[in-house]
Amino acid sequence: MSAQIFDKRLAIAIGSDHAGFELKKFLKNILLTEGWLVDDKGTHSLESVDYPDFAHPVAEMVALDKASFGILVCGSGEGVCITANKHAGIRAALCWNNEVAQLARQHNNANVICLPARFVSEEQATTMLHSFIDTPFEGGRHQKRVEKINFK
Questions:
Q1: Does 4 score more than 80 pLDDT?
Q2: What is the residue extent of each domain of the chain?
Q3: b/e map of 23-57 (b: 16 or more CB within 10 Å)?
């Protein structure tokens, strides 16, 4: 499946915990301005919540092809990433710089980007998100590796 890109006709599933709320809100507004459909799975405030309550619905939407891809944000990015990767067919990638975001798509065909709100700026997160969206999966030698990810 070479040169796979995301389908703008499908929604983007987005979610965060309280630590990622502000960054999620910021990214959601950018995506809406760009014409994407965004399905916000929460949280919707700074009140303390549990990240799995928002990571699971985002991962489920992507796994069921109800979203083109997912965005998850928490303080470190780790909790949401671990949670999302419990779902079959999800390849969630914790991204902390632009090169990692590009390689997650190019080599791993990642379908959920996880961002550490406490460690990246809005500008860095925006750059990573656009790289994640715009970088196609390379396929080729990477395809067989991606096919080996799901445990049988």
A1: no
A2: 11-147
A3: bbeebbeebeeeebebbbbbbeeeeebebbebbbb
